Amino acid sequence: MATRTLKATPKATPTAMYFVSETTQRAVESKAFSYELVAKAGAVSSSIEHDALMAVFSKAELPTFKGFQDAIKADNATKPVKERVKIPTAKTAGYGAIYQMFNNLAKIREAETEYKFDALVYWNAKGITAKRETEPNISYILKGARAVINGKKEQPTPEEVHEKLVKAMYKNALEFKNTKQAQQRVAKIMAIAAADGITLETETETDNEE
After folding, report:
1. Measured between alpha carbons, how far is residue 47 from residues 25, 60, 102, 135 in Å?
2. Together in a domain, 185 and 102
3. pLDDT tens-digit series, residues 60-77
4. How many Å apart are CA 104 and CA 99, to the nearest integer?
5. Band of the pLDDT at 7, cuts 50, 70, 90?
6. Full-model pTM
7. Please, are residues 148 and 117 in contact by the beta-carbon 8 Å criterion?
8. By residue range, what is the domain housing residue 198?
9. Of 112, 105, 114, residue with least CA distance to 54
10. Are residues 128 and 162 in the same domain?
11. Please, are residues 19 and 27 in contact by the beta-carbon 8 Å criterion?
């Protein structure tokens, strides 16, 4: 009678794991990357940005991340508990870019409200020069808004710049080794400060702050 040879059971290949918390880990899945999802995500993202900018251009109330969260809460209230979804935050995976988009919209509106920036006029100045159709985008308009906001900030006077530099020189000089030359430098800086009416931090005050 022929002896039957049993085949050994193949050993399971160890699965790579990744952690999502101190106590939870998941298996690394190797599967084909879906370019179809990328295409869908791109189309949805483009549509969201377009709608948001139309609200900016028409001076309508802007969408916000809180409004997005409230909409999900309201939708959850109409569903059975098992079908409700978790309310995303700025740190929820996949929502960071969305959160930033709403912040960028708010910054553009701040420039319009506080500094008389006009997003539509700003875009049209660029759009009218385009050789081919180019849809408006938040990134470009945000640059204009930031430039207006930063340009309106009060620039320090030469006196303020001078005072800041003297204080920095004094603080830095206190870090030198205690030599006669270092003491002379400190004395010179103190003389300049006294002549210009600049109040310097004492060594004791500096140490206490640290």
Report:
1. 36, 17, 14, 11
2. no
3. 999 999 999 999 999 999
4. 9
5. low
6. 0.62
7. yes
8. 158-209
9. 105
10. no
11. no
